[in-house]
Amino acid sequence: MKGYFLCYPNLPEGRVTTILISGEAVYLVSALQALRIQPILTLASDRLPKPVRFHPDMLCCYVGNGKAVVAAKEKQLQNRLECFDVQIIQTEYPLGYQYPRDAGCNVLQIGEHVFYNPKSADKTILQELETKTLHRVSQGYSRCSVAVADEHSAITADPGLAKAMKQAGLEVLEIQPGQIRLPGYDYGFIGGCCGLISPDRIAFTGSLELHPDGERIKAFLFQRGISYVELTNEPLLDIGGLIPLREERKYMGKG
């Protein structure tokens, strides 16, 4: 298997070589392969609403160093990830069709900080991350609500998450809600349409030009030395995030 597992979720130290994406996003496969990234496609869960049944940030939570907490009873996804040598831990409870049971895996980690809603976050994930600094928030979908730019900065349209991240010492770009497609719902979220593919490059499912805060997002990234790649020319689409799993490194490390 090419590359080392990421030590820290969402924060690659080198060029990403393997990434987890929605099984519905097959149209992104060639674009990712052109970037020398191997996509792993999720499988649908009949325990989730149809619009998000393939979303990786709803089905599992990568906790670092080759370990992922996967929703209980999602055996097909567990088997698929095990084929890529991911160590699987099951959630305490299976997913449920309605909130908060659908959001058990939707927990955000940025470096040493974890943002979660205690009413929805699965206890197994919190146990795996108990050595981190835990921050309670009211947003149950914290992972898909935030685009991680680097260890110290992020982008979100959620005021509560923005406040919590700022209190944790992070720099936050607040954007307007909406303007991100998620068929079946009024709109999707910024974290669900992107993911870092190297320490200084982020990939988006669509064009920033078609988002009203696109120029502000570009400027925020530029100020941090982060470039971007648009995988399609379409409007941004929430697919449950681009979850990096493996990366290249210039040194021998964990993974």
Give an overview of the whole structure.
With 255 residues, this protein is an alpha/beta fold. It has one domain: L-arginine/glycine Amidinotransferase, Chain A (5-stranded Propeller), CATH 3.75.10. The protein has six helices and 16 strands. The chain has a four-stranded mixed β-sheet. Helix 3 links the parallel strand 5 and strand 6.
Describe the SSE topology.
Layout: E1 4-5, E2 16-21, H1 29-34, E3 38-41, H2 56-59, E4 60-64, E5 67-72, H3 75-83, E6 87-94, E7 108-110, E8 113-116, H4 123-128, E9 133-136, E10 146-150, E11 153-156, H5 159-167, E12 171-174, E13 194-198, E14 201-204, H6 214-223, E15 227-230, E16 243-247
Parallel strand pairs: 2-3, 5-6, 8-9, 11-12, 14-15
Antiparallel strand pairs: 1-16, 2-16, 4-5, 7-8, 10-11, 13-14
Short description:
This protein has six helices and 16 strands. By secondary structure, it is an alpha/beta fold.
